[in-house]
């Protein structure tokens, strides 16, 4: 790095640090007395239209948004706040834009809300929104991939700081998830509440873009997230309160973008908005069902392995036999009544509302990518299954 560039960064950092580290007077006045979706929409109006940073500009932004007291990079995928981190990075010298084959090589720019979930180009504001971008170890970032955050019972992989990858053990989802350290769960929960607020209108259309995004989002502007995921975020927010790190980061991002994360300034807003969004326990039903029969079929499988893992599976169905099921064509999305798209990691799918006393035939195709570049595997031995429903 040239000397002139170093002096420019130092001057920029001093200017950022000199700005006020408090909530601007009257910033949240419009939110007074509101709750639920009305409060969230009002906060959306307060924090929208932020100053957009370029993707390359994130490298410099990290110098103030994610710096430890020691001057090292604050990497939430390698740090251990109450212990000794296995490694640390220096700003600039250790940054990288390629993916190494091992951990503890370099840091890059992690979309905590994966880019595939919102399907953006580099011009979209969320693509470089600092409130959802963090510097993280490049290899751990790659292992996280675009899996949702979640809680893991039996991990298939553990990073050097104890972050975990594996099947989700939260009620409502059993696919692969990435679990950060407890000390950063609240940070990421409040990040996701910020996203649901800042991008509440855009989120409605994001569920069709990625299978894993569909797993956590519910295609609404409120509450935005599926019950299982929202329940987890609320627990993470409560169990890991706002830290000084988050407060300092909120102030630094405000100095750069001109907007704030309301859920760091006012953690109570989380429950005021979302606590009533989860379904409550209803009275016990009066009667049992009648005419009990099995007019549905449960399909189970073991996920595909190999060097290139699929994004998901296309299951095609017919009542006329296996030979009547044609292979899918790359680039096309199939959404008819006999076609079902299932995300990787789910490993089961129930086909419902079928005719009684009928044999159904199924073929299952792995695929990578998404429209318009979805790529189906049609060679090799295609999984087949048939089953008859009861009379």
Please explain how this structure is put together:
The chain is of the alpha+beta class and 391 residues long. The protein has 2 domains: 33-277, no CATH class; 297-388, Immunoglobulin-like (Sandwich), CATH 2.60.40. It contains 11 helices and 12 strands. The chain has helices at residues 3-17, 36-47, 57-65, 115-118, 138-144, 182-198, 211-216, 227-239, 244-257, 262-265, 268-274, and strands at residues 107-111, 133-137, 157-158, 164-167, 176-179, 297-300, 312-318, 339-343, 348-351, 359-368, 375-376, 384-388. The strands form 4 sheets. Strands 7, 8, 10, 11 and 12 form a 5-stranded antiparallel beta sheet that branches. It has a 3-stranded antiparallel beta sheet with strand order 3-4-5, with no helix packed on it. A hairpin with a 5-residue loop joins strand 3 (157-158) and strand 4 (164-167).
- Helicity, in percent? 25-40%
Strand content: 5-15%
Query: How do the SSEs run, as a string of H and E?
Result: HHHEHEHEEEHHHHHHEEEEEEE
Span of the ends, CA to CA: 75 Å
Alpha-beta classification: alpha+beta
Largest sheet: 5 strands, antiparallel
Q: Average pLDDT, to the nearest integer?
A: 90
How many separate domains make up the residues? 2
Structure annotation, total helices: 11
Low-confidence stretches: 1-20
User: How many strand segments?
Assistant: 12
Choose one word for the global shape.
globular
Radius of gyration (CA) equals 24 Å
């Amino acid at each position: 790095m040239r000397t002139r560039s170093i002096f420019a960064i130092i001057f920029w950092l001093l200017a950022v640090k000199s700005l006020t580290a408090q909530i601007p007077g009257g910033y949240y006045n419009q939110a007074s007395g509101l709750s639920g979706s009305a409060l969230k929409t009002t906060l959306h109006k307060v924090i929208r239209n932020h100053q957009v940073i370029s993707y390359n500009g994130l490298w410099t932004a990290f110098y103030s948004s994610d710096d430890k007291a020691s001057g090292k990079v604050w990497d939430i995928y390698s740090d251990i706040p109450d212990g000794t981190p296995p490694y640390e990075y220096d700003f600039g010298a250790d940054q990288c834009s390629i993916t190494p084959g091992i951990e503890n090589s370099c840091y890059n720019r992690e979309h905590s809300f994966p880019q595939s979930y919102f399907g953006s180009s580099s011009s979209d504001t969320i693509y470089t929104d600092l409130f959802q971008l963090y510097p993280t170890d490049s290899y751990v970032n790659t292992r996280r991939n675009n899996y949702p955050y979640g809680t893991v019972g039996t991990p298939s992989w553990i990073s050097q700081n104890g972050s975990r990858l594996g099947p989700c053990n939260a009620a409502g989802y059993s696919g692969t998830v990435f679990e950060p350290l407890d000390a950063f769960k609240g940070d990421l929960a409040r990040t996701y509440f910020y996203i649901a607020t800042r991008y509440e209108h855009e989120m409605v259309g994001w569920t069709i873009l990625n299978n894993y995004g569909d797993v956590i989002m519910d295609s609404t502007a409120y509450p935005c997230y599926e019950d299982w995921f929202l329940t987890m975020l609320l627990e993470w927010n409560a169990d890991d309160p706002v830290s000084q790190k988050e407060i300092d980061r909120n102030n630094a991002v405000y100095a750069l973008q001109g907007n704030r994360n309301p859920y760091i300034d006012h953690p109570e807003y989380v429950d005021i908005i979302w606590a009533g969004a989860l379904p409550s326990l209803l009275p016990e039903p009066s009667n049992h069902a009648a005419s009990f029969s099995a007019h549905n079929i449960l399909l189970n499988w073991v996920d595909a392995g190999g060097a290139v893992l699929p994004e998901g599976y296309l299951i095609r169905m017919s009542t006329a036999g296996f030979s009547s099921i044609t292979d899918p064509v790359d680039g096309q999305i199939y959404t008819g009544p006999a076609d079902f798209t299932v995300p990787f990691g789910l490993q089961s799918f129930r086909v419902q509302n079928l005719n009684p006393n009928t044999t159904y035939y199924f073929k299952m195709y792995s695929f990578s990518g998404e429209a318009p570049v979805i790529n189906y595997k049609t060679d090799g031995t295609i999984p087949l299954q048939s089953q008859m429903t009861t009379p």
